[in-house]
Amino acid sequence: MAKQIFVLSSRRLLLLNHRGGGPGHLGEQLAGSAQQQQQLRVVSSWNKLCQQLGVGSAGRRFKSAAPPLGVETLDPCQLEDLPIEVINRKKDKLDLTFEDHSAAFKSKTTWEVLRALMVFQVCGIHVVVDNNEKLMKFGQTVLGKKLFGLLMKQTFYGQFVAGEDTVRIAPVIDRMRSFGVKSILDYSVEEDITQEEAEEREMDSCVSHASIEEEEANIAGMSAKGDKEFAEEIQRYQPHKEFGDRRVGVTGARTFFYQGEATCERNTDIFLKCIETVATTTHTTGFAAIKLTALGRPQLLLQLSEVIARARQYHQEVTGVKGPVIEGNTDPGTFEQGLKEAGVEVEKPAVQNWLDNMTYDKQGLINMFDWGGLLDINVLLQDMFKVPNLQTGRMEPLISALTDEEEEQFKNMLRRMHTVFQRAKELDIRVMVDAEQTYFQPAISRLTLEMMKKYNTEKAIVFNTYQCYLKEAHRNLVDDLEQANRQDFFFGAKLVRGAYMEQERSRAESLMYADPINENFEATSLMYHKCLNECMHRIKEMMRQGETKRVGIMVASHNEDTIRFAIKMMDELNIKPEDKVICFGQLLGMCDQLSFPLGQAGYSVYKYVPYGPVNEVLPYLSRRAHENKGILVKLNKEKKLLRRELKDRLLSGRIMHKPKGEYIPI
Question: Which DSSP category does 655 fall into?
Fold first, then answer.
């Protein structure tokens, strides 16, 4: 006990001597070399103190999670995770009806409350929302870009976008933080192109330029024609001009179109800048968000998704077990015997080498390929994804043909991913990989899992996104959780309902493959809660085993019932906000009646914070207008609360209210 008190007192002295960092954090801010050196000295002193007392930090970073324990039972090393300021931070009682307008809007000036009400009123006018792109272009033409930009800053832009650059967004981030809400940064500039241009770019970037000499329907001795379900699945991964404009029907997600390797390099630089901005403006408590279609040629994602489907079918033909390879728990010896029975000469060196390099553990196969081999820039995709032909026994590529240039483009994509995640790990910033369309998503999830395996060795740096409107959402989540457990890496997931429903349904119907979307909103909510329940029970089980922080979940939802469900589950399982394994997320300018009361009650909450020049984020603003039009019930509640807040300020003489927060986010 005396040692614990000494460590606590010593750490407080170090904090008192530390100048320039945020409250209760060591080495938070990265700006200024002198300040950075001072912070590093503080960190070093603290680590030496722990080592001298025999309570070493075990390589953990200072913002890692830890359970909220009383001082009498605190592990001294956990004190670095729970500064005194955080333990004793101000917390309000949470109203789970989310009707407390004061808690929702006390971070706002009266003008901001009035602006929000006006913007939401306009979002309820269908004719305006349906024609908002034309109206904005007309406004630019009549007023000129400068005057139009000033008008937008006072209205829609001011409501949904934090600012033009990393300097101008800092006050917004700081104010939200002082009211208990942290930030996810996203540079939201988008190119405004016509549907025809989008379709042309998509088809050009999704079709391989390789000459195909073999019949693609009979790869590695498997015929897609004999299995209707498999043939339909393969059809999903073929490009179609009718659906070339991936923006159609999408209101909740940004779309990147491939314009060459130079553009992908610029996107990488933007993501790196965003990560560095998170580090310097959010005290390393924030997230950055990225999309893999911004980092490379989308054709490669289509072909990798197809490889995953073909590998699953190959495994089924050899073993008779349907479904993802990891679910089969196939013994490597059993798999080899299946190949023998198919007539493959498994004694051949090439076949033996392939069998030896499959990914498996004592439970069985995890993957048919060593996907970690993608980290080797000298390995060609067509060499890596080879399997024995079930008819001839020869080693043949499971992936469709690629040109040398396309192989190089894939290496470039991987290099960019590594650059982004390596920088994030160096700066202790978490990165969320956004979900995309189902024909890209198998490859995106697989690559993201491999990046987790490499970079999530000490904590969750890389987060994958799971769209719960998909029928396979829970199955995919469980498989990925299982892989993380079996391969011993930290797992991060963002749960969302999904952004591409209309487009996915239309494409499935047109191309005649199974609709991947749940039947209705209720089924999607059940799926969301099922996924959340799965994650929370795994978190609790790991905590019982002393394995804290192995799984981290973001509940990204604007749905009050889902938020209440998550909080109820946390209470039932005794998962505390201070454990830092569950957090919540909403968009800037929307559903403040959820975000701010949660943050002020001590929960870990984030706002998705877009930024960028006014006239370059108009596509983003257009989507926000459409999205608000589609959630009129939520919008009506938020407008009702805004009116109550305005009325209270008028009656109490608080028209000149100046927000001043005294909350410290967990």
Answer: T
